[in-house]
UniProtKB/TrEMBL annotation:
<dbReference type="InterPro" id="IPR040079">
    <property type="entry name" value="Glutathione_S-Trfase"/>
</dbReference>
<dbReference type="InterPro" id="IPR010987">
    <property type="entry name" value="Glutathione-S-Trfase_C-like"/>
</dbReference>
<feature type="domain" description="GST C-terminal">
    <location>
        <begin position="470"/>
        <end position="601"/>
    </location>
</feature>
<feature type="compositionally biased region" description="Basic and acidic residues">
    <location>
        <begin position="313"/>
        <end position="354"/>
    </location>
</feature>
<dbReference type="InterPro" id="IPR050983">
    <property type="entry name" value="GST_Omega/HSP26"/>
</dbReference>
<dbReference type="InterPro" id="IPR036282">
    <property type="entry name" value="Glutathione-S-Trfase_C_sf"/>
</dbReference>
<feature type="region of interest" description="Disordered">
    <location>
        <begin position="1"/>
        <end position="63"/>
    </location>
</feature>
<feature type="region of interest" description="Disordered">
    <location>
        <begin position="97"/>
        <end position="165"/>
    </location>
</feature>
<dbReference type="Pfam" id="PF13410">
    <property type="entry name" value="GST_C_2"/>
</dbReference>
<protein>
    <submittedName>
        <fullName>Glutathione S-transferase</fullName>
    </submittedName>
</protein>
<dbReference type="InterPro" id="IPR004045">
    <property type="entry name" value="Glutathione_S-Trfase_N"/>
</dbReference>
<comment type="similarity">
    <text>Belongs to the GST superfamily.</text>
</comment>
<feature type="compositionally biased region" description="Polar residues">
    <location>
        <begin position="144"/>
        <end position="156"/>
    </location>
</feature>
<feature type="domain" description="GST N-terminal">
    <location>
        <begin position="381"/>
        <end position="461"/>
    </location>
</feature>
<feature type="region of interest" description="Disordered">
    <location>
        <begin position="306"/>
        <end position="366"/>
    </location>
</feature>
<feature type="compositionally biased region" description="Basic residues">
    <location>
        <begin position="21"/>
        <end position="36"/>
    </location>
</feature>
<dbReference type="InterPro" id="IPR036249">
    <property type="entry name" value="Thioredoxin-like_sf"/>
</dbReference>
Length: 610
């Protein structure tokens, strides 16, 4: 029976491994089957092609008697073949369609710019290597090859180099240990070799290469790096060669020798005999048998020729993998170290450009609404505000900044911290809070800072007038601000710091008298010192007034001050003021931080704020 070879079509079912279709350049129109006008176009004789060249079996088509349109009419004794022929003909059309799509894709790629092709190459190379989807050498390992979850990136097929792995994954660790032990012959595809060998090139040192003229492979021989430099080998005297820091070690610490053989495509027959008693090697051969690429084998070899043992067994490592990593880092480990150095250098450069935030070792953090306000003002602002959340002097300035609506950055500082943060010392050489910095200018002391903020309001900055415009009222306010700082604040400190009953009683009586005197000179109807207007007098008093119910009510000898109704009305108005509420933490913070507040008060009355 005459037959006609139809290229691109297999005799059996089509294999998915044939996609995308690769057409041989000799498959021209003269080698294809065309049926038209009731006759066969082309020679009716069988066209012979080398199956080894194309990798495709021939399709046998019987002689036909006649044609009906474009469909052949087979002899009666071959009627059963007609349906099979029609199916094959449909398959031929499918192959032709795929070939057309393949040619269009190649044409499109040639028209693309280089950077567009490179982007597609990178995207394609992030997929799983073909060799990793089939049963292979490391089926016994948990993750034998590159997977989508593995950081390993397959190697480029177009000479663009190997994409470095981002970290040593579990798959890489398994392969490193396997190639370190080398209990039997290990076979790697080209992709696997280029992916994993750079992880273990620190273990072995190349000694010689053996090339074969009549055989399709090349062998390279390696010693374990711990064997040391062979005798008679001179060190390089090249002045341009980079000098490496080497770890001192003795010679002959390990006698392991390995051979890495590179096989040309289609050379699997060279290993068929060795695979007879090696199931893993047999699986690996089956995996790469139809892949048109080079592959490699790793194996330990007998070193008896040089070491004189003559026991017939290859030497084993006298150390572990970690020791090899100590002697020298692999290519991939060095790349990871370089990436880490670049990351740290980039971070340092960013830190230099961005002014560092003052360090805070404070055990106290603002809570409640004060924490929310501090978070809102954590970013860079026009004014840097150095404060402590439990400090009443810091809260004075904080209330004013909120009332004025200034753009500021809240910087939490622990006033008892040693050594003091450098940025705080630049703003206040005594290292106490509160302090502010605006550009190159800095200021400390709550009373002085509040006076500066008031001046900004008077000059049109901000949205709240902190002192009345009337000269007499303004002078009256300054008088009672001084009274709060010189009378009420010291009395407050004496009461909270007294440790014996009699001093506590005397301090409580003095504070009660001072508060009563202040209340008598406040506006009668309130609720604030000047009536309905919230002023600097209220800001100076508020942090201490709101702390009294929490800190002093439990002290023996403390009673509510005189004129209780007017005082209570004043304190309630301060607690409900939005600027005071937004800068006040929960009562537990003030109770727990009482000890630090007393220590900070001691610094305050030695001169300066907390």
């Amino acid at each position: 029976m005459d037959s006609l070879y139809v290229p691109g079509v297999e005799a059996g079912p089509r294999s998915s491994s044939r996609s995308p279709l690769h057409l041989h350049p000799h498959h021209g129109p003269q080698h294809q089957l065309h049926l038209h006008n009731g006759r066969e176009a082309g020679d009716s004789q069988q066209i012979q092609h080398s199956h080894s060249t194309h990798g495709l079996p021939a399709l046998s088509v019987p002689r036909v008697d006649s044609f009906s349109g474009n469909s052949p009419v087979f002899p009666a004794d071959l009627s059963g073949y007609a349906s099979n022929y029609n199916n094959r003909r449909a398959e031929i059309n499918t192959v032709a369609h795929e070939a057309h799509q393949h040619r269009q894709q190649q044409t499109h790629q040639r028209k693309q710019l280089p950077h567009q092709r490179q982007g597609q190459e990178v995207g394609r190379h992030t997929d799983i290597p073909a060799s990793s989807t089939t049963p292979g050498l490391f089926d016994g390992l948990s993750s034998p090859a590159v997977t989508p979850n593995s950081p390993a990136q397959p190697t480029s097929h177009h000479g663009h180099g190997v994409t470095p792995l981002r970290e040593e994954s579990s798959a890489v660790k398994a392969w490193r240990q396997k190639l370190f032990d080398l209990e039997d012959i290990v076979l790697l595809s080209n992709e696997e070799y280029e992916t994993y060998f750079p992880w273990i090139d620190n273990i072995y040192s190349h000694r010689s290469t053996q090339q074969y003229k009549s055989k399709p492979f090349e062998a390279k021989y390696y010693d374990c790096r711990l064997k040391g430099r062979p005798s008679g080998t001179k060190k390089s005297d090249d002045p341009l060669k980079k000098k490496r820091k080497r770890n001192a070690r003795g010679l002959g610490l390990c006698d392991v020798k390995i051979k890495i053989t590179k096989y040309e495509p289609g050379s699997t027959a060279e290993l068929e005999a060795a695979a007879t008693n090696n199931p893993e090697l047999g699986q690996a051969l089956a995996r790469i048998r139809h892949q048109d690429q080079v592959f490699y084998t790793f194996q330990r070899i007998n070193g008896s020729v040089t070491n004189g043992v003559g026991d017939g067994k290859p030497a084993e490592h006298k150390h572990d993998l970690a020791r090899s990593d100590q002697i020298k880092k692999s290519t991939r480990h060095r790349e990871l170290a370089e990436q880490e150095r670049e990351r740290k250098q980039s971070k340092r450069q960013k830190d230099v450009k961005r002014p560092p935030k003052p360090s805070s070792l404070s055990p106290w953090k603002a809570t409640g609404l004060a924490a929310e306000t501090a978070k809102k003002h954590a970013k860079e602002g026009v004014i840097k505000f150095y404060a402590s959340c439990f400090c009443p002097f810091s809260q004075r300035v904080w209330i004013a900044l909120e009332a004025k609506g200034f753009d500021y950055q809240y910087c939490e500082i622990y006033p008892l911290q040693k050594p003091k943060p450098t940025l705080l010392l630049e703003a206040n050489p005594r290292g106490l809070v509160p302090a502010i910095r605006q550009g190159d200018w800095a200021c400390a002391e709550s009373t002085v800072i509040l006076e500066y903020l008031k001046k900004l309001v008077d000059s049109g900055h901000g949205n709240l007038v902190l002192l009345p415009t009337d000269a007499r009222l303004k002078a009256n306010c300054r008088l009672w601000i001084e009274f709060i700082n010189s009378r009420i604040v010291p009395s407050f400190y004496l009461l909270v710091s007294a440790t014996e009953e009699e001093p506590k009683r005397q301090a409580a009586e003095k504070l009660e008298r001072d508060i009563a005197e202040l209340v008598q000179h406040a506006e009668e109807n309130g609720p604030f010192f000047l009536g309905d207007h919230f002023s600097l007098v209220d800001i100076h008093l508020a942090p201490f007034a709101i702390r009294l119910p929490y800190l002093l009510r439990q002290l023996p000898g403390w009673t509510q001050p005189l004129l209780e109704m007017r005082w209570k009305k004043w304190v309630d108005a301060l607690e409900q003021n939005e600027y005071v509420k937004n800068t006040t933490s929960k009562p537990e913070l003030y109770e727990k931080s009482m000890g630090d507040l007393i220590k900070a008060f001691q610094a305050r009355f030695q001169g300066g704020d907390v």
